[in-house]
Design brief:
Layout: H1 2-12, E1 22-23, E2 33-34, H2 38-46, E3 51-62, E4 69-72, E5 75-79, E6 87-93, E7 96-103, E8 105-109, H3 117-120, E9 132-138, E10 148-151, E11 156-162, E12 168-171, E13 175-178, E14 184-198, H4 204-211
Parallel strand pairs: 1-2
Antiparallel strand pairs: 3-4, 3-14, 5-8, 5-12, 6-7, 6-11, 8-9, 9-10, 11-14, 12-13
């Protein structure tokens, strides 16, 4: 499923080896090939009947003596890490102060990640072949805090504060790192894209309509 795709993207993405995802899970936006389509899709690949689509990756650099770096196809999340206390996340874009989000957290997503955690937090759906960075506050304490869509070349810097110091950085929902209060995280576009194999069997819009049950009258059961 998508979790396996994300793990594979971390392992082979920097080498730009193309990835074909097969959906054995539930929602499956990344692993768009169903089990029933597996062998026909492999035949398409062997015949050259496919395209390679480029998916943008973001890079999170933690201000730390070890120089920690996390490359993410979906998103970087800074949140209160299970604490009952609300977080404050001071955020700048290209060196200009944007906001201090008083919230459960902040999601920094790619267009691919716009249909993941960011979507459930009220963020927009961004076509995955676009280049952009999406900032979505997580349960903000004010209604004026809204998602901001940035240029892909933007550099986002976030510093979180929580009363009990329990901030957590999550990379693609799979790798976690405990942050100190005031520890800076710089997020920018990575220097490579993930190469995604598309067999032309479904467009992104068909996949979106199917996964989100659009175009169906759900009142009829």
């Amino acid at each position: 499923g998508d979790g396996t795709f994300l793990a594979a993207a971390r392992d082979v993405g920097p080498s730009e080896v193309p990835i074909l995802g097969v959906n054995l899970g539930g929602l499956g936006f990344l692993a768009g090939v169903t089990v029933g389509e597996l062998y026909p899709s492999l035949e398409d690949v062997l015949k050259g009947n496919y395209e390679i689509l480029e998916r943008m990756v973001i890079r999170a650099e933690v201000e730390d003596e070890d120089g920690l770096v996390f490359n993410c196809l979906n998103d970087v999340v800074i949140d209160r890490g299970g604490s009952p206390r609300i977080a404050q996340i001071e955020t700048t874009v290209d060196g200009s102060y944007l906001n201090t989000y008083v919230a459960d957290g902040l999601i920094v997503a790619t267009p691919t990640g716009s249909t993941a955690y960011s979507l459930s937090a009220g963020g927009p759906i961004v076509v995955p072949t676009m280049d952009a960075i999406v900032l979505t506050p997580l349960c903000p304490h004010t209604l004026s805090a809204r998602t901001v869509v940035l240029s892909a070349d933007s550099v986002v810097q976030a510093k979180g504060y929580c009363e009990d110091g329990s901030l957590l950085l999550s990379a693609d929902g799979q790798v976690a790192y405990r942050l100190r209060n005031g520890q800076s995280v710089t997020i920018r576009r990575a220097d490579y894209n993930v190469r995604w194999v598309w067999t032309r069997r479904k467009s992104f819009y068909e996949l979106l309509r199917h996964k989100l049950n659009w175009g169906r009258d759900l009142r009829r059961g």
